[in-house]
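Late entry, evening session. Most of the bench is empty. Finally got around to the prediction I had been postponing all week. Sequence below, unchanged from the version circulated by S.P.
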Amino acid sequence: MRVRRSRGPRHARAAPARRSRTSAVTSAAAAVGPRAPRVLLACLPGLAAALGLVLCADGIGHRGAKPRPPVAARPAAPHTAARPNIVPRSAWLDSLARHAQPPPRYDDKVVAVFVHHTDSPNGYDCAEAPRIIRYLYAGQTGARQWDDIGYNFLVDRCGTIYEGRAGGVDRPVTGAHTQGFNHRTTGIAALGTFTAGVTVPQAMTDAIARLAAWKLGPADIDPRAEVRLVSSNSLSRYRSGTTATLPALAAHKDAYMTSCPGLALTARLPEIRQLAARLQGRTR
């Protein structure tokens, strides 16, 4: 009789080792190489697949992935104002009064406005304004032998704005209104004489504010601020070549030895500056 040797209970047999699903996936990834992201998405269950999708979409694991450039900040928009209604030169300069003149000169921009008065009578009817401007033109181009009227703009007591010096109202025309400081500036003349005690019409000051806000807008100049200008003539208050700090909306007398535009209009300049700033959309 043969005696069989006991092999022990069946459950005691050594079970073959099972590889975990994680290790299997790892091995598969090593086998397939660069195509692993596509295979893994099919194999990974549940949250693991979702994580893999996020990693692939974000570019993690891709060779040669370039970092995203930073988003540049947008520059602040300039404070501009609407263009006011402006009566052209042709309304006051007829063919009989006009004379030959050289081409206009230009600067790169306008950073300051000088306010003047014309030192002429105040009791005019507004319909007479073109005649008065023509008279001023004749005096400046005749006796003074200037090539054109010096002021870039003129404003009458009713608030009507007239184009003065030739060259285009929307361009930075070099004027002849403030000795030493005609570059990068615009000259606005109030028709009349506004010495101490004279009433300055509200329509006139409002029109000056609208015009100043519009002309200073493209350079984003706050009418209440100060600007730096270089004198070109030692007959001004500043020696030629000197850098002067002046109001962006200044009186003629701020740059030249004169009483222009008179004490009454000078006293209204702070109010004009504030209105011009509001018209540019400045809230503080």
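Two things to note before I forget:
Helices lie at 21-32, 36-43, 46-57, 129-141, 202-216, 263-279.
The CA atoms of residues 10 and 259 lie 121 Å apart.
Will write this up properly tomorrow.
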